[in-house]
């Protein structure tokens, strides 16, 4: 029998139930393994996350198909309709499961699509989602929501399993056999519909509260760190970006520093000057691995909170060149930064690019080849300044 009846589940519903149960169980286990894996074994960690994300997409697809099927099927009536509280709680848990089976993988998928380059989904259909733009803020919000909803899913699964065991071991009323073998249990009471609707409403409110709480928690956790004080400068920077690009798993990934200052002296007549830039390393963002980049294995922002670039500016053909040193992690090395600049009505627009080798500054020493993290780091700076 494919379809449900008022006293039993059909074969299609049973397939969706057990297939979803297997995929979600595997994915929960893979999520724990991925999170607990050491960054020292990054190749394995990336693989675990890729499997976790791929299973998440499969779980979302199964859950969506299951819910669509359920909406057009009769739901078997409660075996004990007189136990109103028990029946109501079972309905709440039922819809909590449905809601979390959709929202947990969906929030994880949005988080993945908002970042790039780390632990790809193992399928040929691309890594992005329609209407989801690359955004570190969105990724962080979805990560927090995904985590809270995942615990909600685990709670719902635990309650669901406890209820099933109660029916099987204590009540022995045949409820479990409805889903295992499609056997009938109970009678057609015709009283389940309004209870399911009420349970769905309560579950929806509960999910809204969880999602709202996740956003509040994120806002509290995202309080900005102390910023650098504005530098005294002949030319005052009014806006600008300090970005970089590096390959992760062979894919170019863009990052940036949001907190930096520049003290600039420049003589338009001779094309010469000086520049001193200070960078707050804790302000770095690089997709889903921002925290790892700040850590001891990479920038080590705790021990070396700032980087400093000091250089002389000189003409270079029609353009300019900043020749100086970069002090990063206590290592000072020469750096040449070619750049273009135009000055109009007292406003200077500058853009420059250079390439650094992360190994020169002992960044990512644990990654001795480029399979996971590339050696070259392309630095891209642009700014506008007024005299």
Largest sheet: 10 strands, antiparallel
Query: Which spans have pLDDT < 50 for at least 5 consecutive residues?
Result: 219-224
Q: H/E order of the elements?
A: HHHHHHEEEEEHEEEEE
Q: Helical stretch count?
A: 7
The counted number of beta strands is 10
* Percentage of residues assigned to helices: 40-55%
Radius of gyration: 28 Å
Mean pLDDT: 87
Order of strands, widest sheet: 3-4-6-7-8-9-10-1-2-5
Relative strand content: 15-25%
User: What is the general shape?
Assistant: elongated
Structural class of the helix and strand makeup?
A: alpha+beta
Ends distance:
81 Å
Care to give the gist of this entry?
With 387 residues, the chain is of the alpha+beta class. It is built from seven helices and ten strands.
Task: Give a written overview of the molecule.
The relative contact order is 0.11. Helix 2 (42-71) crosses helix 3, helix 3 (84-114) packs across helix 6 (193-221) and helix 4 crosses helix 6. The protein is an alpha+beta fold and 387 residues long. A hairpin with a 2-residue loop joins strand 7 (319-328) and strand 8. It has a ten-stranded antiparallel beta sheet. 42% of the residues lie in helices and 25% in strands. The chain contains seven helices and ten strands. The N and C termini lie far apart (81 Å).
